[in-house]
Structures are given as C-alpha cells and as structure tokens.
Amino acid sequence: MVRFLIRIVVFIVSAALGLFITSLLIDGFEVNAGGFVVSVLVFAVLQSVLSPFLAKVAHRHARALLGGVGLISTFIALVVAHFFTDGLQINGLTAWIAATVVVWLVTALATWLLPFLFVKKKVDERRGNSKAT
User: Fold this and answer.
1) Please, what is the Cα angle at 45 between 43 and 48, to 5 degrees?
2) pTM given for the model
C-alpha cells in the first residue's frame, strides 16, 4: 500500500514539475494558478492510465510505435487537460509540439529520479533512528 501511495505522489509531483517547467520554457504554454491543481491531477491521471494502455495496444498492433508511447500519451493528456480544465492554455502548433516533448522529458526524468529521493530520505531517517537507540 505504501509503495502504491508513493507511486501516486511521484506521478502527481512529476506532472506538476512537467507542466510548471514547460510553462517557464515554452512561449504559448501557460499554466494559470487557479486551475493548476486540477490540470495537474487531470494530466497525471490520464498519463498514468494512457501509457500502459497505449503500450499494450502498440505492442499488439504496431510495435514500431512502442518508442513513442510516452510522447503520444503526453500529447493526449495535454489535449484533454487543455480543453477540459481552466488551468492550462497552449497556443500555436510549435507550442503544442515543444510542450509535448518538454513535458514528456521532465515527467520521465522526474518519475525516474523522485523514487530515489524518497528511498534516500527513508534510509537517512532509519539511519538517524538507529543511531539514536
């Protein structure tokens, strides 16, 4: 159960980082403070559901697309978050393409690195507790 909760937190934090960093780097990609949390939650849920589903479909029907599953699921999650929340605005084809790549890259790196930070924190806490006893 703890592992599942950590995965949820990692997905949400990585989505928040991806959207926020992209808003800083890409012209035409704006995150509104009022709808940011909703946009992050919609994006994170869609991304976590779409990635495994699209990977399974690509594996069965179009193996050449397996490498692009992350980009495709990121694009779809951005489209849904853009059209169904007030927290995300993307204007222009260049912004859509660049945002898809940057959000995908940041979320991929974050979901890879954040678990190490959680584990390191827990290890440090346990070491601190064992020294105190």
Assistant:
1) 105
2) 0.81
